């Protein structure tokens, strides 16, 4: 569509306060509006069907000072003067999987993330479904990667020692008259989109697989290749395997500026020193467009989208043993897969998410309205769901671009840059495949810049995780305890986590020792009591193993104190 036609559309909808212009393959929308949803709508109206054309949002939100990125409080020279072959900005599933894949070549790789651990933002705040790709249309980058990525998960999780289950996905329909339409849809998914496990099953077949789903479902769309994984445990495993193969990670490290000369990034300034990379990979999630701006290569915008998930007590796990949801054929404007119920590898049910547009990239607050709406919606999937079984909830912020697709390409004006942006659902599913392609792209760019790259013949894809006492049979448990008595001391009763597992987690390859980092690795505090009994013991173990005062043990990162000091003097 011509710029003139876009301008007329915007004028007709919003008046004459907005301006549209096009620069090469970028459509830039500018002006001022007083409602964020209107800004998202205006930019979405300018999305082009032309491949590779992106919308940049330069509309000012009147009366609002846009929140600045939260910065680490640490300021030192820990990485000053480093000259990595590849600098990856972002320690989420994209950055960590790419780092691991790059170590198949003889390269120096540095990953920086502004948080105190990897997978703190979107990669640790999603539902963990490994999508089959049934809801994506042919032609998008998402669709081209999702089936390939899905099929890689058995190998990846086996290599990285991460629990993964192919539990299947059921989408129920209430109206039997819709079955011919859904049958045609399933045929199209199998034969055109390559999602060859898609089929329509009867009410009787559905009951055989999931007996507690809504008895009013007339039939269902079924994809047995759908699976579930812990997104943060997988990201941690990717990072640990990358480190074992020579990659370096610098946490609490934010990119704050770049020196760009003659279309090339010369240096990247951080709060922990200045580095001089040959190549930069932008995997910064919701801040990817900010990094692109630093690199003078901003040709897209990220509009954050909040999603809330609820976690149920494990006793509710028997209600759903797979991934389940319901659907009708009404058009949705939320750009969400609609949420559902997921039986996680740990045995809990996870319910959600919803989709709420926001201008706040780091607002993880959970609203009562989201909790109520999610429960009301998913009780149509499984009527026996009970809100009293909710033990916690969390909210993540997805990094959507206006085209609702991935951006995986070299810089357009900056030559030693690769963008891995707009990575939202199904980004977890596609990560293994994207990592392969971005790694190959990086090697190709480095060689074109005159840097020979050799294969790393000593690359070891195997990462051994921390033994899980809960998953062992009595013979295995006994052998483990005989070898290390700390495995016979249960610290977290809800999750059956032993002292030995917690000590192993404290000494993790990333060197992260906070209460939440241990929780994400071996699960103390993730049960019904949410750490009410075990957290003090975890704090004590961290203090003992790292030889710091208990007052210095943090919950998540810097400034998240748990203890302020002694409440009374010890007896002399």
Q: How many extended strands?
A: 26
Low-confidence stretches: none
Tell me the overall shape: globular
Number of helices: 14
Description:
The chain has 572 residues and is an alpha+beta fold. It is built from 14 helices and 26 strands. The strands form 6 sheets. Strands 8, 9, 10, 17, 18, 19, 20, 21 and 22 form a 9-stranded mixed sheet that branches. It has a 6-stranded mixed sheet with strand order 12-5-4-16-24-23, with helices on both faces. A hairpin with a 6-residue loop joins β23 and β24. The longest helix has 22 residues, at 427-448. It is globular, with a radius of gyration of 24 Å. The model has no long low-confidence stretch (mean pLDDT 95).
List the keywords:
572 residues; alpha+beta; six-stranded mixed sheet; 14 helices; 22% strand
């Amino acid at each position: 569509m011509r710029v003139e036609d876009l301008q007329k559309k915007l004028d007709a909808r919003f008046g004459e306060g907005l301006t549209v212009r096009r620069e090469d393959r970028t459509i830039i929308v500018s002006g001022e509006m007083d409602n964020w949803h209107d800004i998202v709508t205006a930019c979405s109206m300018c999305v082009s069907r032309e491949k590779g054309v992106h919308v940049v949002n330069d509309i000012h939100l009147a009366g609002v000072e846009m929140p600045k990125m939260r910065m680490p409080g640490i300021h030192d020279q820990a990485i000053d003067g480093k000259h990595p072959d590849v600098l990856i900005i972002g320690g989420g599933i994209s950055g960590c999987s790419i780092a691991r894949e790059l170590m198949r070549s003889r390269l120096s790789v540095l990953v920086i993330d502004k948080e105190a651990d990897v997978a703190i933002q979107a990669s640790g705040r999603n539902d963990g479904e490994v999508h089959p790709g049934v809801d994506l249309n042919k032609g998008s980058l998402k669709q081209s990667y999702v089936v390939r990525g899905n099929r890689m998960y058995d190998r990846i999780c086996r290599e990285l020692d991460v629990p993964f289950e192919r539990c299947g996905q059921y989408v129920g329909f209430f109206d039997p008259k819709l079955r011919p339409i859904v049958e045609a849809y399933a045929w199209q998914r199998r034969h055109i989109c390559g999602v060859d496990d898609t089929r329509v099953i009867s009410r009787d077949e559905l009951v055989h697989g999931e007996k507690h789903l809504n008895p009013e479902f007339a039939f269902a769309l079924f994809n047995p290749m759908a699976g579930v994984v812990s997104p943060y445990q997988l990201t941690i495993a990717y990072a640990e395997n990358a480190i074992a193969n020579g990659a370096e990670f610098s946490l609490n490290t934010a990119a704050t500026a770049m020196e760009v000369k003659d279309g090339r990034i010369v240096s990247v300034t951080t709060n922990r020193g200045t580095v001089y990379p040959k190549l930069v990979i932008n995997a910064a999630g919701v801040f990817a467009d900010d990094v692109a701006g630093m690199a003078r290569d901003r040709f897209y915008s990220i509009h954050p989208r909040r999603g809330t998930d609820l976690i149920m007590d494990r006793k509710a796990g028997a209600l759903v043993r797979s991934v389940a949801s319901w659907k009708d054929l009404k058009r949705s404007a939320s750009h969400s897969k609609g949420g559902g119920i997921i039986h996680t590898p740990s045995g809990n049910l996870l319910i959600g998410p919803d989709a709420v547009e926001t201008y706040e990239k780091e607002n993880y607050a959970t609203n009562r309205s989201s909790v109520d709406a999610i429960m009301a919606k998913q009780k149509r999937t499984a009527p026996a769901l009970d809100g009293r079984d909710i033990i916690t909830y969390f909210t993540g912020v997805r990094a959507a671009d206006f085209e609702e697709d991935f951006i995986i390409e070299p810089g357009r004006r900056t030559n030693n840059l690769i963008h891995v942006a707009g990575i939202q659902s199904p980004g977890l599913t596609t990560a293994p495949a994207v990592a392969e392609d971005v790694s190959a792209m990086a090697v190709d760019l480095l060689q074109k810049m005159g840097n020979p790259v050799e294969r790393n013949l000593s690359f070891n894809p195997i990462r051994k995780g921390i033994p899980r006492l809960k998953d062992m049979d009595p013979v295995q448990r006994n052998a483990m305890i005989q070898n290390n008595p700390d495995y016979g001391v249960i610290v977290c009763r809800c999750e059956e986590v032993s002292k030995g597992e917690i000590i192993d987690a404290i000494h993790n390859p990333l060197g992260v020792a906070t209460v939440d980092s241990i929780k994400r690795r071996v699960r103390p505090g993730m049960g019904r009591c949410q750490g009410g009994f075990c957290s003090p013991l975890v704090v004590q173990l961290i203090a003992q193993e790292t030889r710091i005062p208990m007052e210095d043990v943090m919950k998540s990162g810097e400034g998240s104190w748990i203890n302020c000091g002694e409440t009374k003097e010890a007896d002399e």
